[in-house]
Amino acid sequence: MNTNKKLFTFLMLPLILFSQKEIKKVAQWTTHEINLTATDKYENPYADVDVWAVYTNQNGDSLKRPAFWSGENNWKLRFSPPDANISWSWKTFSSNRNDTGLNGKKGTFESIPYKGNNRLIKNGLLKMSAGHRNVVHQSGRSFLIVGDTPWALPFRATKEQAEAYAKDRHEKGFNTALLMTLQPDINAKGPNVRNVEQGFNRAFKDLSDGHINEVNPEYFDYLDKIVAILIDHEIVPVYQPVFHGFGWKGLQVLGSKIEPQEYVRYTKYLLARYGSNPAFWLIAADHDGNDPGVKESGIMLQDWDCYQQPTGLHYNPCDDFVAEWATNDPSKHCMHHNKTYQKEQWLDFQWAQTGHGGDHQYHKVERMYDNLPTKAVANGESTYEGMNNGENGLGWWQGEEAWMQLMHGGTMGVVYGAAALWQWKISANEEGWGEWADQPLSWREAMRLEGSKYVGLVGKILGEIDITDIEKRWDLANGEPLLAKEGSLYLSFLPNGGAITIENLPKNLNYRWINPKTGETKLSGIGREKTFKAPDENAWVLLISE
User: Fold this and answer.
1) Final residue belonging to a domain, choices 421, 443, 470
2) CB 281 within 8 A of CB 234
3) What does the pLDDT read at residue 282?
């Protein structure tokens, strides 16, 4: 009897060991990809069938993720485990229950600790803070947006160019990139290639006909690689589905006229494809938010984004007035007061736009900061550096703009832009934009403009500071610019130096005067009084903390 047991164990041991090796190990917050192959044929796989999976861990917690069509008969699921040392099982579902390749598939894997150094992955996907003023990682680590606007990068840049861009921005202190996920102008023309003047890759074959039903999977395979480059450089993509305002060349954007179900379907496709990585969903851009499919996409994201990453709107420049360029065009949607959908639960953040005239306008974020219920606020588009044929918003103008927008209540973060970079111009002389939107530089030359250094320094100076739910508290400083977590953290920017007196300030907190043009600390010490005098009459940042 004992001999038989030993023989059975000996014969079964290879099977047991093989079975153990087959258990997939997935590091926490990294993407586990599952490939599915349909058994049925579909005339338009992108639009004709919905596929999703439910992931359940050993504790009974369940998360739902949509799948996306990846070409031919193939679908993919992407999921990031939000924990470590937990067993997970998954099961697929399909709107076509008879397709056994898509419906009823099952599997298991085990989550393990992440051992890499990428701060985005290490700290987990993004969510809103408890007070709704800021963004934080799932770990609780503060995430202050320091954003750039390479809008046309997804459809114009090569992988090599994206690598050069991401390296430059990471080194300067940027952590966020705003992206048009596709070229949105119906009437734009040019070769279907990257890095060629007038050229741009097509995400959908039918966009020029006013629809997005015929997806080009190869386009998104390439975009996958660009997104991976950004994530590798700790830069979070902000995904804008289909632009609503000016667009790329101002040649009739599709977003303001799109079929609502097409907009929602595409937003869900982006969620399926990119939602397992750190992401923002910018579901309305350069308008008032009342465009087809926007509200429906917000509701969809609330239902389908199991990680609840931040969802928001980006308004156009006019908010409580009719701009000159919109006087005879009701479709420009002015009069929105930068507060559309204020009470919607799916709305997490709102971004103002102050136009490109070179004016420092701070009243918009001030008003938005006071709106209720509270939403995170930023100026998502101030004057891009070099707009108006290289004249507006140059150099330090960008640094002062960023710090003062922060001080006026834009505590979600700061956003920078440069003419020629946002269009991703192939050469300095590439045509297609009016002087108001252009300057004679290529994207690479525009990337090196001086102003980007100063905005990036906001991230370097504040990157290790927990600013979560910091409040605008000018009342504590006799009307001087001040953000505070009263009792523990105080932040001021004085554009012309001088002194600031802070009421109710605890003694013995640490203080530093930091040069916002270099990031260097000039004076530091322990505060024993409530008045602090800047080193000189130049711009200074005062940081007081425990």
Assistant:
1) 470
2) no
3) 98
Range of the domain at 525: 473-545
Q: Do residues 425 and 500 both lie within one domain?
A: no
Helix, strand, or coil (residue 204):
strand
CATH of the domain at 77: 2.60.40.10
CATH of residue 348's domain is: 3.20.20.80
pLDDT tens-place string over residues 38-62:
999 999 999 999 999 999 999 999 9
Cα–Cα distance for residue pair 313/352, rounded to 1 Å:
9
Same-domain status, 172 and 104: no
Q: What is the pLDDT of residue 502?
A: 98
CB of 129 within 8 A of CB of 158? no
> In the predicted model, is pLDDT for residue 10 greater than 60?
no
Q: Is the pLDDT of residue 18 over 80?
A: no
Measured CA angle at 127 (ends 291, 134), to 5 deg: 85
d(CA 362, CA 417): 17
Is 306 contained in some domain? yes
User: CA-to-CA distance for 443 and 420, rounded, in angstroms?
Assistant: 5
How does pLDDT run across 519-541, given as a tens digit for each residue? 999 999 999 999 999 999 999 99
Same domain, 237 and 291: yes
Q: What is the pTM of this model?
A: 0.95
Both structure tokens of 269: 């496709």
pLDDT of residue 472: 98
Helices (H), 158-308: 159-172, 217-232, 260-274, 294-304
Query: Looking at the structure, do residues 220 and 324 belong to the same domain, yes or no?
Result: yes
Q: How far is the C-alpha of 239 from the C-alpha of 129, rounded, in Å?
A: 20
Q: What is the distance between the alpha carbons of residues 120 and 104, in angstroms, rounded to a whole number?
A: 33
CA atoms of 433 and 151, how far apart (whole Å) = 15
In terms of domains, do 242 and 303 share one? yes
Query: Please, where are the H alpha helices in 36-104?
Result: 45-48
Tell whether 4 is covered by a domain.
no
User: Which domain-ending residue is among 440, 470, 500?
Assistant: 470
Hey, which residues does 16 pair with through a beta bridge? none
User: Which position has the token pair 């680590």?
Assistant: 141
Q: How far is 186 from 250, CA to CA, in rounded Å?
A: 9
- The secondary structure of 439-454 as a DSSP string is -S--HHHHHT-HHHHH
Q: How many domains does the chain have?
A: 3
Instruction: Note the pLDDT tens digit of each residue in 285-331.
Output: 999 999 999 999 999 999 999 999 999 999 999 999 888 888 888 77
* Sheet strands side by side (includes 510-514): 471-472, 483-485, 489-494, 540-545, 510-514, 521-526
Beta-bridge partners for 86 = 111
106 vs 101: CA distance, rounded Å:
11
Q: Is 130 helix (H, G, I), strand (E, B) or coil?
A: coil
pLDDT of residue 4: 54
Q: Are residues 458 and 517 in the same domain?
A: no
Residue 14 has pLDDT above 70, yes or no: no
